[in-house]
Every structure is written in structure tokens, then in C-alpha cells.
């Protein structure tokens, strides 16, 4: 059902959905699909071919064919756009109504309104996200909780700049088809926000700003740039008013940072060090290559191990050389009701943000409103009154391909506790995602799609590379099955009666398939999406 030729909406229409699923939005989706979806599928095929080449013994390196872009010192990205000059603390989180208001009232400089890692793409979430953003920009948003607590926005001049993160190129949107084909989740999220809010943002002196996730090459960035050109023309806003910060969160993209900035240069607002997906991608990219690329327990891999340090140092150096913001990532610690754990979490945030600020990052992320001030204090100490530190060029940084690939220098062990944590957290997260909730606090840590991907990939890698745990037990199918059994029993006992109303059987089956299957699946969220209505 739709009034636009060739476009079908197969998902149910909820309250006010017609305000977002307008003919103008559907026309843009159709145009983007017809002009760009073929290239999107080619890029996904290129990813598969690269993985095969790596499995056959290949490696990653800076690209010879784009050396001239890296060697040309003359180009810069566009100057920072209004609202994106001072980004010292950015809140992230889902776009449901309550969290939208809480994020906008958090005191952060920017808010990453997430349709990606922190969101589960339930059809309602896909449409309600842009609807809530539209109501925020119109200042008509409010919310009353079931307990009777009312929420409304602070004055305009205290609100963060909105930056929307659409889904990655790999995810389809099955509830909107064009010419009988599933559409791209990325292009749907982009189009729905651009049409409902793009012109309003330009009229209020800012622009439609985006974070672009999980790209694996500069050619994927070129595809986004082409979508931006089409989108700006479609909604009648000047070229260059769209801005995008690209997450460098895949291993191949770390070798193409300059090229990614170059492709998007008139629309660029910097790069971000997305550490969690980066770790996932490191495991995924060299998953069959044995000890050289096998990582220890997830919680023991810090930002200061050599390969992570090389990646963040190179990101700051690259961004500032090109006049672009370098944005830091997410420390997963969230506040706790236990005072000792709470103090530990806040110390961890201070340590993480202080290191980033001293390294030259222009700002960083927090997952919880309670952590905004702590991160702000860390950046204030380094930035003072300056809005950013784009002038800190970091010419002392000289990172080589070998530095980026130096995974084997990572200290740490693979332990039974690490295996159990991966299994338990992975299953709990998948269960929550299947019910439509894409971020969860588990054991004092923020968990989202990226962290869950690490958990299931580590189990697969340990099993398929013959890893032995620190206590001498080999990781076998039987051991993983036993751990799954025991961890699910522990979850069931902790949840009590609530367990029966969850989607635990589905979550367990999916996690087991992902962890034990002979074939490694590129994304957990793709088969999970198939299990969604
Ligand atoms: C790898 C990456 O991509 S990182 C970026 C993507 N991930 C994220 O953005 C995760 C964002 N964080 C979250 O979603 C949440 O903090 C969670 C799910 C981890 C924990 O949320 P909760 O369990 O609700 O935490 P808690 O009970 O401490 O929250 C206290 C209040 O803060 C609000 N809050 C917590 N986190 C956020 C957030 N990120 N955005 C807006 N509000 C938030 C809660 O809604 C709650 O509000 P209320 O008091 O009005 O009811
Ligand atoms: O998106 C951020 C990440 O760390 O992954
Ligand atoms: Mg990510």
C-alpha cells in the first residue's frame, strides 16, 4: 500500500506513521533505490571477495591505487558546520520518546540519535525514530511515563546538535519495497530523517547531520556521497548542508581513512573511532588465521594495547591533517546503584576521556546522561575555551600497516569466565534485540549490537582455531554447548516468572548457530532481522 509508483509499504501503519511515510519520503526512497541499490549490492559482494582473499593468506595494506590522494597535501574537508564546531561531549542512544527527551536534556554538545548499534530495527522503531526527531525539532515532543513522570524539553539554546546514525549498508528494510525488492535500511533511515527534518534543520541554521557506520571502503563512502547529492536536491536544500562523520570501525576502513574523508569532503564532519565494531571487525577479518589474530577475553582488551593505540593515533593524525574533527569512542561503563561499582565506572570514564583529550581528539561519546559532566570535565581540562583542537596536528604520529596489524602483541588470556561472559551477554542481548530493544545495561556495562558481535565472534574464533583456556580446557563444541546450557539456566533462574514471556528460545538458538556453525555469518543482526515480524 502506497501512493507512489512501485513502492509498497508491507509493515502495519501505526499512529501518525503517515507523517513520516509521506509521498515525498517514499519518492526519495524509490529514487535512491533505483539509482544506488545495485552499487550497494556490488559493494557488499566486494566485501565477500576481500574476506575470501584474506582467508587465502592475503593481508590488509594502504591502497596503492589511491596513493595520490594520501600524498596530496593540498585538500581539506569543508569547514565545521554550525552546531558541529564544539563537539567535546556527545551523548548516544536510541530514539524512543523518553530517551530522545532525556538525551536532548543531557547537557551534551551533540546527540547521536541512533538507528544503528543501539537500535533494534523493529518496524515501529524505524518510523517512530524520525517521528520523535521531527517532534523534537518542532518542540512538540513530550512524554508521560506509566508511573506518571512527565518529560519535556529544555530551552532551545541548551539542546545538543542532532546527528542521526542510519543502519549500515548490509541491512535490508523488508517493510518497504521498491519494484518488488527489499530496500536498503541505510537509505530508508537516511531518507525518512532527511525528508521529515532536513529542511527544518537548515531553516533553524544547522543541517541534517549523520554518523555513517560500518563502512569497509572509500567506495562505500562514495555511495553515501552520491546519496547526499540526490537527497539534497530532492528536499531542496543547498549542497553541503548535509554533513557526515564516518565511523572508522572496520579493519579495512582503517587503511582508507584519508580516502573516506576525501570522498565525502564537501559533506564531511570528521571521523570517529568506533572501538567496539573495530574489535569485532578485527576478529571477523582474520578469523581463520590462528594465534596471530586471536584476541584474549573481551574485557581485557584495552584502548592502550598496541593495535588499538595505532588505530586511534592514526585517526587523530589523519583528521587534523585534513581539517576534520577526530571523535573518540564509547567507554562501556554505565552508572551503578552500588557505590563502589559506581565510583569504579566514573573513574574509568575519566581515564578514557582524559586519554582521548590528551591524544588530540576533539570530543568523545558517553552512553548515559549521568556521565556527560564527567566527560565534559576531562575535555574542558585540555580544551579550555577552545571549541576543538583541530590545530593539534600530531605530526609526531607515524603509524604503519604493520602497527595496525600487530594484534599478536595484545596481552591477556582466554579464560572460562571470558567464555561464559560472552555466552551469557550475547544471549541476553539477542533476546532484548528481538523484542525491539537495541541497547541494554548488563553487569554494569552498556551492551549493543557491536559488543554482542564481539561476544559471538570470539566464541566462534576460539572454537574454530583450537584455542585452549587458561585452565587447560580446550574450547570444543561440547564445552560451548555445556556453557550455553548452564548460562541459560542461570539467566532463567535470575529472571524467575519473567523468563517465560521473553524470546529466550530464539535467542539461544540464534546464538548457538552463530557461535558453533562451520560457516561464520558476517552479521548477527542479519539472521536476527529475519526472525523479526
Ligand atoms: C558501540 C556503540 O555504538 S556505542 C553507541 C551505541 N550505544 C548506545 O548508545 C547505548 C546508549 N545507552 C543506553 O541505551 C542506556 O544507557 C542503557 C540501555 C545502557 C542503560 O539504560 P537504563 O537501564 O535505562 O539506565 P538507567 O536506569 O541508569 O537510566 C537512568 C535514566 O537515564 C536515561 N538514560 C540512560 N541512558 C540514556 C541514553 N543513552 N539516552 C537517553 N537517556 C538515557 C534513562 O532513560 C533513565 O531515564 P528516567 O530516569 O527518566 O527513567
Ligand atoms: O559504533 C561504535 C562502536 O564502537 O562500534
Ligand atoms: Mg559501531
Question: How would you sum up the major sheet?
Answer: 8 strands, parallel, barrel
Give the overall shape. Answer: globular
Assign a percent range to the helix content.
40-55%
Number of domains: 2
Q: Mean pLDDT score, rounded?
A: 97
CATH topology of the largest domain: the name is: TIM Barrel
Question: Rg to the nearest angstrom?
Answer: 22 Å
Low-confidence stretches: none
**Largest sheet, spatial ordering of strands:** 2-3-6-9-10-11-12-13
The CA-CA distance between the termini, in Å, is 18 Å
Bound molecules: acetyl coenzyme *A, the ligand O=CC(=O)O, magnesium ion
How many beta-strand runs? 15
- Name the CATH homologous superfamily of the largest domain: Malate synthase, domain 3
Q: Helix count?
A: 18
Assign the CATH class of the largest domain: Alpha Beta
Roughly what fraction of the amino acids lie in strands?
A: 5-15%
Q: Could you say which structural class the secondary elements and strand pairing correspond to?
A: alpha/beta
- Give me the CATH architecture of the largest domain, please: Alpha-Beta Barrel
Protein name: Malate synthase
EC number: 2.3.3.9
GO molecular function, one term: malate synthase activity
Domain Malate synthase N-terminal: 5-67
Give a structural overview.
The chain has 533 residues and is α/β, with parallel strands linked by helices. The chain has two domains: 7-401, TIM Barrel, CATH 3.20.20.360; 413-530, Malate synthase, domain III (Malate Synthase G, Chain: A, Domain 4, Up-down Bundle), CATH 1.20.1220.12. Helix content is 46%, strand content 13%. The protein has 18 helices and 15 strands. The protein has helices at 23-55, 67-71, 97-104, 123-138, 185-203, 218-235, 251-254, 257-263, 275-285, 306-321, 339-359, 372-383, 401-404, 416-434, 449-464, 477-495, 504-516, 525-530, and strands spanning 7-9, 89-94, 110-114, 142-144, 150-152, 161-165, 172-178, 181-184, 209-212, 243-248, 268-273, 326-330, 363-366, 440-442, 445-447. Strands 2-3-6-9-10-11-12-13 form an eight-stranded parallel β-barrel, surrounded by seven helices. A three-stranded antiparallel β-sheet has the order 1-7-8. A hairpin with a 2-residue loop joins strand 14 and strand 15. Helix 5 crosses helix 6 (218-235), helix 9 packs parallel to helix 15 and helix 14 (416-434) crosses helix 15 (449-464). The chain is globular and about 65 Å long. The mean pLDDT is 97. The structure holds acetyl coenzyme *A (ACO), the ligand O=CC(=O)O and magnesium ion (MG).
